[in-house]
């Protein structure tokens, strides 16, 4: 599908991805700002340098693995470095930035990653180097929960066949700013119950049943100015885990729909200013999670033309930014 076709498709459906679900499960006021908007226009929060640096790294790894078995490992590293640099240039306008997100630092980290897992590289055949998907969620087979259908959208970092036992695993790569072995192992263990890889396993089992996905490979990369760290582990996923993820997803969406409808009763008053958004309650303990919340000034100074001028429209879609080569829609 072309980007125009994807844009048209997503404008015609109700869809959620891991980012939306995470926001909804967090501060409801933040969810209101980013998913509804004070004037009916969703507000975009700025994407940090760390996230853009991670996207560049994912682009490099995608190129590294989609050339597996076709070129030598050293040639694949060169292709990966070029892909990283091309993606990096989209986000960072100058090469003279003094931070850990410099291009040369990123290329060094990518090379160290490939070197670190060099002995494992021949043991895993990449079946998909990157795959986008949009799966329709209609009902929960694990219980009595029913809902109007919606789509769950995502992009996986790859499907790999472990050659020794012919099992298939999704790869979920995460970057973190901490590099100590204890911190990296802790982040790796957190992935075991992370809704994102569990949901991805559930969706890929539905749309690609021929692969019989065993679970996911958690892949943590620690990045700091003076140090690096790497950790991997395998997490088998039971079907009951997928069913539980699905039911929780449906419950989250249904709860949000109820809050949304209740909020519209207060918000939509023709010719009247928006004076009550308290349906979408604040979670003030989250204001400084991962730095100051992008919408802090809206809560501090209120909704007015000056504060709204600080934001652009939220047009984020995980399949429209750096569109994957292949997308499965179910």
Query: Which stretches are poorly predicted, pLDDT < 50 over at least 5 residues?
Result: none
Question: Helical amount among residues, as a percent range?
Answer: 40-55%
| Distance between the ends | 14 Å
Instruction: State the order of secondary-structure elements, H for helix, E for strand.
Output: HEHHHHHEEEEEHHEEHHHE
Radius of gyration: 21 Å
Overall form: globular
Beta-strand residue fraction: 15-25%
The helix tally amounts to 11
Report the biggest beta sheet as strand number plus sense, adding barrel if it closes: 5 strands, mixed
Strand order of the largest sheet: 2-5-6-7-8
User: What structural category do the secondary elements indicate?
Assistant: alpha/beta
- On the 0-100 scale, what is the average pLDDT? 85
Number of strands: 9
Task: Characterise the protein shown here.
The protein is an alpha/beta fold and 330 residues long. It has a domain at 18-41 and 261-327. It has 11 helices and 9 strands. It has a 5-stranded mixed sheet with strand order 2-5-6-7-8, sandwiched between helices. A 4-stranded mixed sheet has the order 1-4-3-9. α2 (18-25) crosses α3 (28-35) and α4 packs antiparallel against α5. The longest helix has 29 residues, at 239-267. The chain is globular, with a radius of gyration of 21 Å.
């Amino acid at each position: 599908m072309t980007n125009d076709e994807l844009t048209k498709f997503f404008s015609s459906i109700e869809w959620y991805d891991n980012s939306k679900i995470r926001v909804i499960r967090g501060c409801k006021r933040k969810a209101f700002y980013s998913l509804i908007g004070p004037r009916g226009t969703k507000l975009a929060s700025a994407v940090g340098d760390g996230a853009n640096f991670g996207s560049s790294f994912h682009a490099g790894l995608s190129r590294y693995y989609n050339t597996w078995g076709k070129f030598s490992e050293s040639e694949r590293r060169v292709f990966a470095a070029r892909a990283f640099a091309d993606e990096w240039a989209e986000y960072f306008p100058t090469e003279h930035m003094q931070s850990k997100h410099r291009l040369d630092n990123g290329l060094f980290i990518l090379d160290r990653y490939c070197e670190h897992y060099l002995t494992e590289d021949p043991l895993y055949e990449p079946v998909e180097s990157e795959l986008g998907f949009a799966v329709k969620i209609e009902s929960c087979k694990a219980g009595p929960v029913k809902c109007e259908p919606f789509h769950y959208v995502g992009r996986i970092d790859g499907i790999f066949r472990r050659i020794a036992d012919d099992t298939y695993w999704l790869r979920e790569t995460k970057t973190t700013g901490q590099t100590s072995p204890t911190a990296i192992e802790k982040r790796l263990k957190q992935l075991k119950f992370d809704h994102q890889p569990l949901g991805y396993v559930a969706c890929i089992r539905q749309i690609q049943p021929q692969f019989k996905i065993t679970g996911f490979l958690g892949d943590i990369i620690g990045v700091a100015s003076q140090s690096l760290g790497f950790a991997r582990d395998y997490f088998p996923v039971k079907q009951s885990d997928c069913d539980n993820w699905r039911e929780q997803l449906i419950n989250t969406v249904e709860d949000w729909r109820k809050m949304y409808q209740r909020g519209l009763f207060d918000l939509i008053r023709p010719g009247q200013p928006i004076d009550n958004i308290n349906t979408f309650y604040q979670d003030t303990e989250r204001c400084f999670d991962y730095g100051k919340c992008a919408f802090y000034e809206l809560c501090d100074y209120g909704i007015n033309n000056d504060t709204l001028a600080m934001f652009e429209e939220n047009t984020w879609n995980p399949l429209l930014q750096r569109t994957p080569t292949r997308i499965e829609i179910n």
